Amino acid sequence: MLNARNALADPMPIAPANELRWTVEEASKLLTMPFNDLLFRAHAVHREHFNPNQIQLSTLLNIKSGGCPEDCAYCPQSARYDTGVEASPLMSVEQVTAAALKAKAAGASRFCMGAAWRAPKDKEVAQVAELVTAIKGLGMETCVTLGMLKPTQAETLKSAGLDYYNHNLDTSPEHYGDVITTRTYQDRLNTLSAVRDAGINVCCGGIVGLGEDVADRAGLLCQLANLPVPPESVPINQLVRVEGTPLANEKPVDCFDVVRTIAAARIMMPASYVRLSAGRRELGEAGQALAYFAGANSVFYGEQLLTTPNPGQNEDLDLFARLGIDTMAASG
Q1: CB of 295 within 8 A of CB of 275?
Q2: Is 204 marked active-site?
Q3: Of residues 75, 204, 222, 255, which has the active-site annotation?
Q4: Is 72 one of the catalytic residues?
Q5: 303 versus 213: which is more confidently predicted?
Q6: Is 203 a catalytic residue?
């Protein structure tokens, strides 16, 4: 039988030499190897750790939009840019529960809630904790993204039953300053540490198409894979260019670069769920199919992400059926 680890003549190992830390050079070699070879290796790793024909569905709800003071160059929710996104207050428990029930009925097993804050106040975290408890009562996994957290705030969310906290690194440390200046890279790492210390699963990834180069993508993946514990969930986003943001006219990213990033993430973080996130419409069905083969086994499910469009539920279910992919059911 063909052995995925030695079938190729290329002698590059499938994991770093010390099996603990990845270097940017090693990650760059992954990202630039022949496309077929990369996908072959990534798919082999995927099969070792997951059912290759099963996908996890998460639904994302914007529970408090706009008015964010940060200057993230890609984000339409920044108060610094004129993008047509209006600020709104935090949604009620009743509104969020109704949305979660709808998502569960449509097949989502995880319900993610996003609020446009730089760093929430304690009273705001307490309000979100009520939402988390309500969604847990529906038998769904919970995830929130609220900006920077203090350790005590992470503990509050853990006590409420939070399963995952999303806080992306976005890009490499070297390219980060070209994308955002109002929050440091270390600020992001500190939040990840607080979340991990509280016993919450980490959801952390980045964005392809921010004007970065291969070394930056490699640097991002190394930051993720070399965390004390790699993120349980790794969202890989393709930049959705929004009019009014500084990156609105950024050159479109090649879909194969997105798939390469998915594949490298799968190899470098074999036990993590790798989520094909924003930008799936731009990727197209063929690109999505390649991404699933390369190791993506989670998607955001529903017609709307925080502020940008997403494939419709029927479109996703039709594609999954054509590819022979089953979805994971919610518990309860």
Answers
A1: no
A2: no
A3: 75
A4: yes
A5: 213
A6: yes
Give the active site residue among 143, 204, 222, 255.
143
Annotated active-site residue in 41, 72, 183, 260: 72
Mean pLDDT of 318-327: 91
Read off the pLDDT of residues 56-88 as tens digits, 9 standing for 90 and up. Answer: 888 888 898 777 888 888 888 887 887 777 778
Q: Which of 68, 204, 222, 255 is catalytic?
A: 68
On whether the CB atoms of residues 152 and 119 are closer than 8 A, the answer is no
Does the annotation mark 255 as catalytic? no
Q: Would you state the structure tokens that stand for residue 31, as one six-digit string?
A: 């990202």
Tens digit of each residue's pLDDT (9 = 90 or more) over 280-307: 888 889 999 999 999 999 988 765 454 5
Overall pTM surpassing 0.85 (yes/no): yes
**CA–CA separation, 155 vs 152, rounded Å?**
5
Choose the catalytic residue: 41, 188, 203, 260.
203
Tell me the per-residue pLDDT of 239-267, one tens digit each, with 9 for 90 and over. 988 888 888 889 999 999 999 999 999 99
